[in-house]
Amino acid sequence: MGIFDRIINVISGFFSNLVGTAEKSNPEAVYEAAIQGRIKQHGELKKAVAGIVYLRNKLESEREQKTKELADVNAQLPVAIESGDDEVALLLLQKKNELDKALADLTAELAKISEQAEEAKGSLLSFQGEIEKLKRERDQMLAKKATAEARIKIQGSLDGLSTDADIKALENVREHIEKLGAEADVSSELKENSLDERLKAIRVKTGDTQAKSQLEELKKMHAAKQAAGAVVAEGAASKKTL
């Protein structure tokens, strides 16, 4: 393969890809072009069928005319024979033979043309059916394309609202709540370590110590009273004994 052939192949491939891309991006135009092309072919086929039908009708008219002429000759021939006019009778016989042959040829040709006309009309109807079928296919495929595009668009929207996004949102909320809790803990810890709290704790401890000292003094005084009372009672008992 020469360099020019390779260049031509590259250019051809490039334009083929370009056309293919354009066709995929605009399927409606592709279908419409195909339909219009078939409609044009249908019109040309219809003209051809019309020509065949015209020829068939013309042959039928000619056969009818020849049949009428033959009937006239067949009617005139006995009269010429009875009148003894052999010359006219011969002319009528020659004309009859010519008409018989012409009718035979017309009948054979008419049979062929009629068959062609029926086949052509069948092809025309079939072609018309293909056009209608292609139109239905176009509508179905374009509807399918629109549905697929809508599904892709919806799926894209759903992807934008995926569970990953939901999980991330939950993580953000959880992190925020944890930070708020940490701030509260810090405030509580700072409060516990403040001078006022420490002094308050010392005061509480001091109060507890004083109360305990007072309790011990009261216990001692109560014990001393009990001891004194016991001595007095013992002395009284001794006096009674003496």
Helix and strand layout, with pairings?
Elements: H1 3-25, H2 27-82, H3 86-160, H4 163-192, H5 195-241
Detailed description of the structure:
- Helices cover 95% and strands 0% of the residues.
- It is built from 5 helices and no strands.
- Helix 2 runs antiparallel to helix 3.
- The longest helix is centred in the middle third of the chain and has 75 residues, at 86-160.
- It folds into 3 domains: 3-161, Helix Hairpins; 167-193; 195-242.
- By secondary structure, the chain is mainly alpha-helical.
- It is rod-shaped, with a radius of gyration of 63 Å.
Based on the model shown, name its key terms.
242 residues; mainly alpha; Helix Hairpins; 3 domains
Shape, please? Answer: rod-shaped
Q: Which spans have pLDDT < 50 for at least 5 consecutive residues?
A: 10-20
Fill in the CATH topology of the largest domain.
Answer: Helix Hairpins
CATH architecture of the largest domain: Orthogonal Bundle
Strand content: under 5%
Put simply, the count of helices is 5
What is the count of β-strands?
Answer: 0
Round the mean pLDDT to the nearest integer and report it: 77
Structural class comes to mainly alpha
Integer count of domains? 3
The helix/strand series, from N terminus to C terminus, equals HHHHH
Brief synopsis:
The protein has helices spanning 3-25, 27-82, 86-160, 163-192, 195-241.
